[in-house]
Write a structure and sequence with these properties.
The chain is an alpha/beta fold. Helices cover 35% and strands 26% of the residues. It has 8 helices and 13 strands. The chain has helices at 4-19, 52-63, 76-84, 121-127, 152-159, 171-179, 190-200, 232-248; strands at 27-34, 36-37, 41-43, 49-50, 67-74, 90-92, 104-106, 111-119, 140-144, 164-168, 185-189, 208-218, 221-223. The strands form 4 sheets. It has a 5-stranded mixed β-sheet with strand order 5-1-6-13-7, with helices on both faces. The chain has a 3-stranded antiparallel β-sheet with strand order 2-3-4, with helices on one face. Helix 5 (152-159) links the parallel strand 9 and strand 10. The protein is elongated, with a radius of gyration of 24 Å.
């Protein structure tokens, strides 16, 4: 027969366990990526976020002590609007364009990309080594909608009517236009172009690189309207610290 003191002790322990505060769960943070920018950021047939940045962000999220990262995808222009309006805390992987997006804050750089200009065979022959973008006046350009890849001087020329600009949603659409001669040139990241050409088994009919526009880094871009995200500053700090720690340990790609 159990003693009264043992019974009281067990009951007291049970009450103490019930009264004890639960361990705080990690704060989940939703980051939205471009849904059609392979191989960097895209969704598979089932809607799962994929790509180089998704892999990198999952690795960072797994190493963060106080936060978890939940990835989603959306059309690029829609995600930009939602971050600007404070409906989303952040998105990936914008380039750092403070003049075009003064409302966006940025993480530490995640990955470097090499931005190139690819032109049709005829234009490539006549425009090789011409200065960018002034040497390309009068031509027809494709661009991914919402991408600031070509730079402000390019967009200033487009606004002034010194070149023609047609935006399409995806890299695939722009490359098909280039292959068919409906645009003269298309600027984008080299790896993104090569990946889509191989995936589509696309014949670009002699189109070739004519210029390296520059190197850009991809970031997590944050909203400046953080009212709905009381944890934003803490997340941004911990995220950067984790990226730098993993890179120093050789667990993330080095920045070129």
């Amino acid at each position: 027969m159990k003693s009264v003191s043992n019974t009281v002790g067990v009951a007291g322990l049970a009450l103490a366990l019930l009264a004890a505060p639960a361990l705080a769960a990690k704060q989940a943070v939703v980051l939205v990526g471009d849904d059609d920018y392979p191989p960097y950021s895209y969704k598979d047939a089932g809607g799962t976020p994929k790509g180089i940045y998704a892999d990198l962000l999952r690795k960072v999220g797994a190493a963060m002590p106080n936060f978890t990262i939940e990835l989603r995808t959306a059309p690029w222009k829609r995600a930009l609007v939602q971050v600007e309006q404070g409906e989303l805390i952040g998105m990936y992987p914008p380039y750092k364009k403070p003049e075009a997006r003064p409302w966006m804050g940025y993480s530490t750089p995640l990955l470097n990309e090499t931005v190139v200009l690819v032109c049709t065979a005829k234009i490539a022959q006549s425009h090789k080594d011409k200065p960018w973008p002034t040497g390309y006046a009068g031509l027809r350009f494709g661009n991914n909608a919402g991408f600031q890849t070509p730079g402000k001087p390019f967009f200033d020329m487009a606004a002034a009517g010194k070149l023609a600009l047609e935006e399409a949603k995806t890299t695939e659409q722009n490359l098909r236009k280039l292959a068919e001669g409906r645009i003269d040139c298309y600027p984008n990241d080299r790896r993104a172009i090569d990946s889509e050409v191989k995936r589509l088994q696309l014949d670009l009919n002699g189109a070739a690189e004519t210029a390296v526009i520059g190197k850009e880094s991809g970031y997590v871009g944050y909203t400046s309207k953080a009212g709905a995200f009381a944890y934003q500053a803490a997340f941004m700090k911990e995220f950067d610290e984790t990226v730098l720690k993993l890179r120093a340990a050789g667990q993330l790609p080095p920045l070129d």
